[in-house]
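Course assignment 3, question 2. Fill in each field.
Student: A.L.
Task: Predict the tertiary structure for the chain below.
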Amino acid sequence: MQNILFFLYRYGYVLLFLLLQVFCVNLVVRFNPYQKDIFIKSSGAVSGWLLDKYDGVVQFFNLSNVAEDLAEENARLRTQALTFQEIYGPASSHSDSNRTQQYTMIAAKVINNSIAKLDNYFTLNVGARDGIESGLGVIQTDGIMGVITDVSNRYSRGISLLHRDLKISVSIQRNNFFGTLSWTGGDPKKAKLGDIPKHADLAPGDVIVTSGFSALFPQGITVGKITNFELKQGSNFYDIDVELTNDLSQAHYVYVIKNLHAREQIELESQNN
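Answer field:
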């Protein structure tokens, strides 16, 4: 109580002055239409500015949730687009409305990733409870991320495209010659394309896409473009350099591709082995 009295004794005149100022402003605004109009417009501008800043702060802290929602929505849209392409095909082809959906996509967040090793891995925040299984392909918006190898209830781990053991079946978009894409170390934006025969028509800038031959990835996902190629003496296959379209060091949100027909295809192909 004594501190309150001391505070009022010390700052009472200032508080009284401020109170009188507020009272006077209230009288001026209330009984003068012109000043009232100015006050309303000014207070509206100030409150609008404050609300805008407050909304900006709220949105900043909600960016993570917004990004996850957008990734999930994008996964649904990409699944729908892929299904439409599977059923109806290009405009020039015959449609087959009796075909069933083959692929579905699950949005995921990359929570761990490496690119500087010879054999690189990544970890996602989705697992068995989300429908993730070992052997599923993972893509980014603009390229391939890798393949799932290990799954727990809430998380999954996979080998990156930047792993020496991962081979991806791809083809040249312009002429459909197919081969194998692999990473041999070094630059994380560079890869090698093998098994392209010497009679193939190649040109720098040719786009490389997934072939659709494996059960991992659907056909037509852009992987990279040819930057250089040579035919070494005595070889029947080109040595081809590919620049990847995606940057795995910038992988944040990805899509796990689930091939609903994969088991049937794998079981059939394994009979010959």
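Instructor remarks: The chain is about 35% helix and 30% strand. The first strand starts at residue 103 and ends at 113.
Grade: pending
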